[in-house]
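I hope you will forgive my troubling you with a question about protein structure. I should value your view on which stretches of the chain appear to form regular backbone elements. Here, with my thanks, is the record as I have it:
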Amino acid sequence: MANAVKKLIPLLDRVLIKRAEAVTKTAGGIVIPEKAQSKVLHGEVVAVGNGSRKDNGEFIPVLVKVGDKVLLPEYGGTKVSLENDEKEYHLFRESDILAKIEN
């Protein structure tokens, strides 16, 4: 998995995010059906691009870094599947990320 993610480098202000897993069981052990599960709106930053460019060609750095936990919009992003990895990744523009979650 790590090798496949290292090969994928987002361009400009794009950020590759691994969405958190949906809760499939309650604390009491009851299995939640797929349709009843809420959409996961947070994830972890896996890779970031260099940032967007100004008119003079300078880069505006991306505000999030690898390992940050972020809050995502309900819709948006591009689904990305990496070879030899069953996890689901999404590619977002930095401006689409709603917030950074502090620990």
User: Anything to note?
Assistant: The chain has a mean pLDDT of 83. DSSP finds one helix and eight strands in the chain. The CA atoms of residues 25 and 31 lie 4 Å apart.
